[in-house]
Design a protein that fits this description.
The protein has two domains: 33-55 and 77-210, P-loop containing nucleotide triphosphate hydrolases (Rossmann fold, 3-Layer(aba) Sandwich); 237-311, no CATH class. The chain is 32% helix and 20% strand. The protein contains ten helices and ten strands. It has helices at 47-54, 77-87, 103-113, 118-131, 147-159, 177-193, 205-211, 229-234, 239-246, 298-301; strands at residues 5-14, 21-31, 36-41, 62-67, 70-71, 88-91, 165-169, 197-201, 214-219, 222-228.
């Protein structure tokens, strides 16, 4: 069975040459219809670049990207725009609503770009707003709605044409905890009912644990660990994943207990270290980890994974 998304050995290099930035460094990823997939990692890890690749907002420098059975790696801007409008929906960190348009007008805007006739646009936009609980707010301007309601309009706009892939980039960052839950409950329910794949870009491991089926952990332009959420969060293998989970504050910790962090700093993307990019910060690094011939973290190959309980 073919996957909805197949990304193979993908590189994204900016400013090729002496000062090149290797934003993606040989990334492989597969996503099936109906999957809820999270991407986590430090700032500058490549999360946003990967999101742009998968959302057809940018193209790979090298490698292959197959979307819905089509190789989109070398398509021109017009072809990418056409496929993006038909098959991909976006929910961004900011609300990005047109202030002068009503809720319904904002939802209809992407449908206009798809070339839909007015009658069909009205029908789909009203159904989408009803689906997100805003049937009584269709004529309201963004300034007349709360932050949570504005984000619901964004979700309605993203889901109105029922795309195959929904890309959600930190969709709840500006919202309170209660509204965060309401928004992601809504996304999960609607996407699940329609077998829509969801790509969630987030730094919130609590949201990953609650909503995602699979998680991909990024460091320095690479996916260093991936798998089903229960496996990765309960038994992380890669030392970076272990450090990331150990740094999450615990409700049962002593009040005077210091917060844990990963030692060292992330290297700049213009100077990723040879071998494993994490090895200068890794408490378990071996000599082979710094070798240019390095291919995979030795702890990812070992039979036993560490338990999260052992990290705390």
């Amino acid at each position: 069975m073919s996957h909805l998304i197949e990304l193979k050995n993908a590189y994204k290099i900016y400013n090729p040459g002496e000062n090149e930035v290797r934003a993606l460094d040989g990334v492989d990823l597969e996503i099936d219809s109906g999957d809820f997939v999270a991407i986590v990692g430090h700032s500058g890890s490549g999360k946003s670049t990967l999101m742009n690749m998968l959302g057809l907002l940018d193209v790979v420098t090298s490698g292959t990207y197959i979307l819905n059975g089509k190789d989109v790696s070398d398509m021109d801007d017009d072809e990418l725009s056409r496929i993006r409008n038909l098959e991909i929906g976006f929910i961004f960190q900011g609300f990005n609503l047109i202030p002068s348009l009503t809720a319904q007008g904002n939802v209809e805007l992407p449908l206009i770009y798809r070339g839909m006739k007015a009658e069909q646009r009205h029908e789909l936009s009203q159904a989408a707003l009803k689906r997100v609980g805003l049937e009584k707010r269709m004529d309201h301007l963004p300034s007349q709605m709360s932050g949570g309601q504005q984000q619901r309009v964004m979700i309605a706009a993203a889901l109105a044409a029922e795309p195959d892939l929904l890309v959600a980039d930190e969709p709840t960052t500006a919202l309170d905890v209660t509204t965060q839950k309401e928004i992601l409950d809504l996304v999960a329910r609607v996407a699940g009912a329609r077998r829509m794949a969801v790509l969630l870009i987030t730094h919130n491991l609590g949201l990953v644990a609650r909503y995602s089926d699979f998680v991909n952990v990024m460091y320095a332009g690479e996916i260093v660990e991936h798998g089903p959420v229960p496996d990765v969060l309960a038994h992380p293998r890669h030392p970076y994943t272990q450090g990331l989970l150990a740094a999450v504050p615990r409700l049962d910790a002593r009040k005077d207990a210091p917060l844990r962090s990963i030692k060292g700093t992330v290297p700049p993307p213009t100077a990723w270290p040879a071998g494993c990019a994490f090895h200068p910060r890794c408490p378990k690094a071996r000599a082979s980890c710094a070798s240019p011939a390095f291919t995979i973290c030795p702890y990812m190959k070992e039979e036993t994974a560490i338990s999260t309980a052992d990290l705390l």
